């Protein structure tokens, strides 16, 4: 879903008429030059050790209830003859399925043995039915957290959006509308064809098997246990996609089209959330952990709508970059502890923002600045 690539910046020597001047070291720009706040980093670890364990009694009911509400509301949208009522059901379905879908983010960070059966259950109930199995994010999102990759051309989830043209922002959002159609084509056509045409299979894996926004990102071939997991997830998603096409062709396209509209809305919500998850101001330099934190965004209470557009703990995205393995249900408590311990004048406070609209406005104004 990337919009434009990142071009590298090349430093050149300046020449006079007699000799080349010595090369000057390239200094980090913007937040990339931020030194680590060791007090904040130490406090983040020490103050949260007792809440760092994922609790199955929270994960399972939350995921199951979100999925059940989502599918129930989707059925209501499909079965309702009243367009207004159908639309209301569709909005409820989009919000609930959006929450259920975003557990894919948790799957990339929790230890594989932390929640027995949760990965399988989520893929069976959410990932495969929505044609977004966890393979699309596992092995990808963790690269975004790598110390030497974040904000660079090697980061699959980063583009310097704040430094791009104003038209790039609406395009970034609008392209998400086409995501469910692309996922259907991928699983129903491209993956099966790729199984019998190896060059196509490699292309689909490298270019169309990751939830990334960097168009230059290429996935490496899966190996070992992950490769086996990819095989079964792809098989399940392709079988489901082919069934959807067959059933729609023989029984009518209305349910599938309504489903596509609902998933399009979830994709747009996620794209808007992505738009404000970071400040997107880095120009390709490697960043310190503190620099990554300050380039990321928390929208803590009292922002009342944040749990809708940034569910499953993603309203604390900056804090998540300090503590990537912290379970989503503990982020609110971790935030309260750090804010109380470090104070209102600390580095920690600088990544906290009031809400969605101020962040969108800040980003839009940044794209309009002359470069």
Radius of gyration: 22 Å
- Mean of residue pLDDT? 91
Termini separation: 25 Å
Low-confidence stretches: 1-27
Order of helices and strands: HHHHHHHHHHHHHHHH
Number of helices: 16
Q: What is the total domain count? A: 1
Q: Quick one: biggest sheet?
A: none
Decide which structural class fits the backbone.
mainly alpha
Secondary structure: helix percent: 40-55%
Domain Fatty acid desaturase: 88-341
GO biological process, one term: lipid metabolic process
Keywords: Membrane, Transmembrane, Transmembrane helix
Transmembrane segments: 58-78, 84-104, 116-137, 171-197
Key descriptive features of the protein:
mainly alpha, 53% helix, disordered N terminus
Structural summary, described in words:
The protein is mostly helical. It has one domain. It contains 16 helices and no strands. The chain crosses the membrane at residues 58-78, 84-104, 116-137, 171-197.
Question: Can you give me a brief rundown of this structure?
Answer:
With 371 residues, the chain is mainly alpha-helical.
Question: Helices, strands, pairings?
Answer:
Layout: H1 38-46, H2 56-79, H3 83-101, H4 103-107, H5 118-127, H6 141-144, H7 168-174, H8 179-196, H9 198-208, H10 224-251, H11 254-275, H12 289-294, H13 306-309, H14 317-322, H15 331-342, H16 356-368
Helix pairs in contact: 2-3, 2-5, 3-11, 7-11, 8-9, 8-10
